[in-house]
Design goal:
By secondary structure, the protein is α/β, with parallel strands linked by helices. 39% of the residues lie in helices and 21% in strands. A ten-stranded mixed β-sheet has the order 2-1-3-12-11-4-5-10-8-9, with helices on both faces. It is globular, with a radius of gyration of 20 Å. Bound molecules: 3-isopropylmalic acid (IPM) and magnesium ion (MG). 3-isopropylmalic acid (IPM) binds next to helix 4.
Length: 356
């Protein structure tokens, strides 16, 4: 069976890393039919819009989307609704990819690259489930207006109980396949919308009595993540809190350059992208870490294509390469450390192919 993949390289290191990742996929015994499309800055330049209609149509017709990253200083001055990020948000919404899975998994050889002491992160394996198509990212009304000559900016944080219920079900389900513990993160002491979040998550819990559920306020959750991250199994939260907590969790694993993500809809289609952005400051210099995108491709094989064995192979190959001491700049513990070899983007991808 041939899987239909839409590849969206995007901007910055996204576009730089993607050809290497496609070579990794090409080294597997998986039949893929690959189409490419533009999104973000490159789409603004080429089509005058960050999300060309043909990109969304192609995404909807594919089994999965593999995405690099979007954005860059060139497009920073554009109005909010024409920015590269708007293309990414439009793609997520257009595919109804509401369930964003962000695993923060520490590869053992990287324990010394974490910003926390090795014993605090050894064996770390957290899954952040972020609601991705609602909340303050999409809420209306929004804007900046003139109120008697002074400007006023506003956004709306809004969730319906149906939106909360469907992400809660995904999170409970995933907790059941892992260690059976779910932490729901909110700000229910201040925000009504997250009071409803807490109520609905608690109601859904009735259908998952075997899962241990607790609730944390987001400020406390952030503190606990950097204090004792191993207490968590699965965390579920809204769009904005999930954006923030997943960057923090990423750093625990050594580098933002290591973290993959999957954004799934109810039909099993998904957008697979690294948690990191387009990193324009290092783009084009062969220093970016391709592993987050390679691991995103592994998640694609696992979750949307059902190619579990190939996914395992890619993840083991990454493990082996790290075990051998091969590191991109972001995960080099200290310069000249024993047994560590610093490599560029291309050499890292080649090392993974070698290990396959
Ligand atoms: C992420 C990114 C995006 C987000 C940006 C680029 C719009 O930070 O995927 O975490 O905020 O969702
Ligand atoms: Mg983010």
């Amino acid at each position: 069976m041939t899987h239909r993949i839409l590849v969206i390289p995007g901007d910055g290191i996204g576009a730089e890393v993607m050809p290497h990742v496609l070579r990794v996929l090409g080294a597997l015994d998986v039949a893929l039919s690959i189409e490419e499309a533009d999104l973000g800055g490159v789409a603004i330049d080429g089509h005058g819009t960050p999300l060309p209609p043909q990109t969304l149509t192609a995404a909807q017709a594919s089994d999965a989307v593999l995405l690099g990253a979007v954005g860059g200083p060139r497009w920073d001055a554009l109005p909010m609704d024409q920015r590269p990020e708007k293309g990414l948000l439009g793609l997520r919404a257009g595919l109804d990819a509401f369930a964003n899975l962000r695993p923060a998994l520490l590869f053992a050889p990287l324990a010394d690259a974490s910003s926390l002491r090795p014993e605090l992160v050894a064996g770390l394996d957290i899954l952040i489930v972020r609601e991705l198509t609602g909340g303050i990212y999409f809420g209306e009304p929004r804007g900046v207006e003139n109120a008697s000559g002074r400007r006023r900016g506003f956004n709306t944080d809004v969730y319906t109980e149906d939106e909360i219920e469907r992400i809660a079900r995904v999170a409970f389900d995933l907790a059941g396949k892992r260690n059976g513990r779910l932490t729901s993160v909110d700000k229910a002491n201040v925000l009504e919308v997250t009071q409803l979040w807490r109520t609905v998550v608690t109601e859904v819990h009735a259908d998952f009595p075997h899962i241990e559920l607790d609730h944390l306020y987001v400020d406390n959750a952030a503190m606990q993540l950097v204090r004792a991250p191993k207490q968590f199994d699965v965390m579920v939260t809204g769009n904005l809190f999930g954006d923030i907590l997943s960057d923090a969790a990423a750093m625990l694993t050594g580098s933002l350059g290591m973290l993959p993500s999957a954004s799934l809809n109810a039909r099993g289609q998904g957008i697979y992208e690294p948690v990191h952005g387009s990193a324009p400051d290092i783009a084009g210099r062969d220093v970016a870490n391709p592993l987050a995108t390679i691991l995103s491709a592994a998640m694609m094989l696992r979750y949307s294509l059902g190619e579990v064995e190939a996914a395992d192979r890619v993840e083991s190959a990454v493990d082996r390469v790290l075990e051998e001491g091969i590191r991109t700049a972001d995960i080099v513990p200290v310069e000249d450390a024993d047994g560590v070899r610093k490599v560029g983007t291309q050499a890292m991808a080649e090392a993974v192919i070698g290990a396959l």
